[in-house]
Design brief:
The complex is a heterotrimer of chains A (535), B (509) and C (98). With 535 residues, chain A is of the alpha/beta class. Helix content of chain A is 41%, strand content 11%. Chain A has an eleven-stranded mixed beta sheet with strand order 1-3-2-4-6-5-10-11-9-7-8, sandwiched between helices. Chain A starts with 7 loop residues before the first helix and ends with a helix. Chain C is mostly helical and 98 residues long. Chain C has a domain at 6-45. Chain C has four helices and three strands; from the N terminus they run αααβαββ. In chain C, strands 2-3 form a two-stranded antiparallel sheet. In chain C, a hairpin with a 2-residue loop joins strand 2 (84-85) and strand 3 (88-92). Chain C is flat, with a radius of gyration of 22 Å. The mean pLDDT of chain C is 91. Classes of the chains: A alpha/beta (535), B alpha+beta (509), C mainly alpha (98).
Amino acid sequence: MAGRHLAGEDATGAATGSTGDLTRMSAAALAEALAAGTLTSVEVTQAHLDRIDAVEGSLHAFLHVAHDEALATARDVDARRAAGEPLHALAGVPIAVKDVVVTKGMPTTAGSRILEGWVPPYDATLVERLRAAGMPILGKTNMDEFAMGSSTEHSAYGNTHNPWDLDRIPGGSGGGSAAAVGGFEAPLAIGTDTGGSIRQPAAVTGTVGVKPTYGGVSRYGLIALASSLDQAGPVTRTVLDSALLHEVIGGHDRRDSTSLPEPVGPLVESALRGRTGDLTGVRVGVVTELNGEGYQPGVRARFDESLDVLRGAGAEIVEVSCPHFEYALAAYYLILPSEASSNLAKFDGMRFGLRVEPTDGPVTAERVMAATRGQGFGDEVKRRIILGTYALSAGYYDAYYGSAQKVRTLVQRDFTAAFERADVLVSPTAPTTAFRLGEKLDDPMAMYLNDVATIPANLAGVPGMSLPNGLSDDGLPVGFQILAPARADERLYRVGAALEALLEAQWGGPLLDRAPELPTSAAAATTTAAEGSVR
Amino acid sequence: MSASTHGGTAGSVLVDYDDAVRRYDPVIGIEVHVELGTATKMFDAAPTEFGADPNTQVTPVSLGLPGALPVLNRTAVESAIKIGLALNCQIAELCRFARKNYFYPDVPKNFQTSQYDEPIAFDGYLDVELADGTVVRVEIERAHMEEDAGKNTHVGGATGRIHGAEYSLVDYNRAGIPLVEIVTRPITGMGDRAPEVARAYVQTLRDIFRGLGVSEARMERGNVRADVNLSLRPTPDAPLGTRTETKNVNSFRSVERAVRYEISRQAGVLDAGGTVIQETRHWHEDTGVTTSGRVKSDAEDYRYFPEPDLVPVAPSRAWVEEIRATLPEAPVARRRRLQTEWGYADAEMRDVVNAGAIELIEATVAAGAAPAAARKWWMGELARTANTEGVELADLPVTPEQIGQLQGLVDSGRINDKLARQVLAGVLAGEGSPEEVVTARGLEVVSDDGALLAAVDDALAAQPDVADKIRGGNLGPVGAIIGAVMKATRGQADAARVRELVLERVGQG
Amino acid sequence: MSTINRDEVARLAGLARIDLTQDELTRLAGELDVIVESVARVSEIATPDVPATSHPLPLTNVYRDDVPEEPLPVADALAGAPSAEGGRFAVPQILEED
């Protein structure tokens, strides 16, 4: 990979652009500059830490910032580079990690009170790979508690704010990672996607997010939400950056039984190829069922314009029908709570994390478990655990969990049929732009409907990407979703990079350049943090 | 469980066993858990060393830490297939693991990863031989893989750190150890022999586990644990009665006693017009009774669902056949073959079986001893020693190979039986091999005629009057001379040879 | 088909080992009733001829060799424990039988 010209002219332009700020550079551009010796990792990492210190009060994207560890890694990488050691392409490029991924020696809470203060004794496989690549970890990003939510409002540690409008949600569950990348606190971040938690936050923050094929990135060390749906992936500002990060974290892991046996595909090559803007011969399928009612007019308009761009690049646009997708949301809200009710059983105050004793009556293991879980879990987590317990309980299994697993089969069959007619499928990522903080907090079903377009991919295990394709009438970013067959993630990168290149040519630069400047004063930080904790 | 529910026979009395089985038909069902002897756990590469310090055999997986994931142990699957085949089961073409969800502090994930409706082996049988040679076929419903739980140690209140209350300490070394659970179909028609059948079944399983090499199968370490289900019905054609499940019956004798006790107890309940409660009961080794545990109710809702973190197991038929080809023969068939080969009487073979000495004798014969001699050692001198010391024959500090060598020394005339017992004592005392003990203790039979002649001459010279009588043709006192020679050689002379030499010396030879 | 009342939520909370307040019981009963009614439509198309999918991708036979790895140092194993004693996790008195 070394020696490949990744950044090209655009990135060089960004590096010397209006701000001259290292935090505005893409990861690819930073990697090239580091390899060329024009920047050091300490400079790059320090610049991002400074940016975090400046805007974190506005965004609250992080639950933990690892100043010292990040700089130590940066110094180490700089020393190894100076000594002429061969290094990974992204060596020295800093990254933020969603707090659902365990990090040895660094607090990991999954956004929950029940894990407050827990310091894992081991690293997730993907974290091992980041460390092995020499990437400084800036810290852990905020999220909905145990990744349950679409707004990051269900974090036990306060809201994260959307960099485009601080009164709005940054999406969820990975709102912290999306806001950190969209707010230039980190060039790269790790997210996890169980029903859209990478793609939907990317859509509403104007960033790029990829959910790889199920099994493409190891789940070892991801605090499980729904084991058969969870998948970790990149959150970045460019498609190429996602490809670069995906290649670092992807590939077989013997510690995850569901890990695909093959190495990760030629993702960076596909992204570079896509940037030429030529999609001749590529069949793009528009899913009828994901293009109907309920979309904000601006979201629909940008989607239709993007189809025109793809058509202009030589792609053939076909319409495909996936009739069972309308049942996907219902199946998802049975499978996820069921698996979650079991996965979250281990949080009981016996071996790690919070322990709460009952206020009266005997102190028994049973009562301490119940008290710990009653106080340690937030409302949404309780809601879903109870729902999952119901769906799995004797007498209901066939009607609920069993039926949902059958819907899963039907959704997979829809995908199989659709991919016979199209190489990739496309839709808007989310039905609306970012909604206001608090707007849907009291209406769980309305919140759940956010995921209607992203969920089918998780049920079937196929890969998906969201990339920005413009601003809606409200001036907020809109996301475009691309889906590919399982184990064909490279198609996302080719089509995504092509669309990105053509759109940026129209816009005259990245969409994020149009985001408002964030307040950076310490006073602003204090005020916003206080507001953020009011729920 | 509370103290008030302990009296399982409240309101009724135990019925005399013989009377009970005359009037009721017992039906038994047995669930046996065997811990596999793998080097690592079922889903986790943590080691499985017995007796290690607490929580030193754990990884994030066996502790159920957030983020940890299971990966299945290939050897454990192979062992489960071996057990299934040895029990004449079908081996599933595809089966999955399931999560059994329940909260308990020794279950780190608060679910046990097990197999629910898709066991790896099913529909088998096992032929079991009773003490009188009767063979009973026990039908096997299923054998499935699962993981063991950790161990709780209860700590009294006085020294407690948790608000001075009673508390427990948990060690997760055992959590995740691979288990295979074997479930029988209801065993009917055994009448008064039901307890004996239960015991023989568990004993035969133990032999199979050892024969297959899948487990050390040591009852005293809890490697093999039996849960015994029992119900009574008035007649063999009546529907099955309500059953109780007596948990963790961990010796052969206890299996037999627990079944006997439950038959007497349930007969008492039924005689008094009561109904047997479906419940878990606990076996008390010391008092020989079962007491009421947890009542099984509809509230017990394990919410099983397929384990998403493990992929299905689909053993290829080629692999299954490869494993089948390595299986040793079934215990009953093997016993019959060995009995014929060894020429033992039925009663002798039964004693050998009951003493758990088959493998020991087989190995001793393989080491060169005649079958009769091998039996004589293991069922005689060694059985007495084991009995005195309260250990199993197999646990004595002597190997079948050493017994073979010992018998070889006897057969070659280098030692006699009396010396052989001293040599064995030396081996058991850790003094080395039989050869080494012979050398170290100087126990070899003196077969050197020169040395013997000198002793004979000394004896004759010391008792001239006796020597004269013998010379005179009176052979009566020759024993006195032989005795003197044996004494002088500390029993290491061959008495027959001494007699020949004495007679030769006095001209009577 | 859904009838999730407060008693049912209380039973489920017991199974799930979560203490819920009276307010939570009432609120959850209402919310879950709506959610369950909405998701129950999966049974409309889940006909007997459709097989269930438990794993998104059809992998089988993923095994590990029976070779031990270095266990966690006992200090690391116990580091996150709310209470520990003598190398073991200390937990409150266990009343229910296994």
